[in-house]
From TrEMBL:
Gene Ontology terms: cellular component: membrane
Protein name: Mitochondrial inner membrane protein Mpv17
Species, as recorded: Canis lupus familiaris
Keyword Nucleotidyltransferase: no
Protein family membership: Belongs to the peroxisomal membrane protein PXMP2/4 family.
Keywords associated with the record: Membrane, Transmembrane, Transmembrane helix
Amino acid sequence: MALWRAYQRALTVHPWKVQVLTAGSLMGLGDIISQQLVEKRGLRGHQTGRTLTMAFLGCGFVDYPDALLTNYYLWPAVQLANFYLVPLHYRLAVVQCVAVIWNSYLSWKAHRL
């Protein structure tokens, strides 16, 4: 709980920086999930460069939180709940948490052999 409160404080003080780091971290996490749980690469087979690339891309697209999952069936329900139930400064985090699943799929799909 202390970590969540620290995140909330940081988000209030430095919203843009925290949102960039949140987006990049969760995009990287999506790739880690893809490599470890879906592709079952193990630690020796993990492609660190690929994870860093995905994290970097996540940081670069933070300005467009509403465009991350458009055109997918899940998105309208997520956005409906997000806009009605979630305070404004937490919306990007909610979108990114849902996007971890999507990012895992995209990473797996883009890097299939």
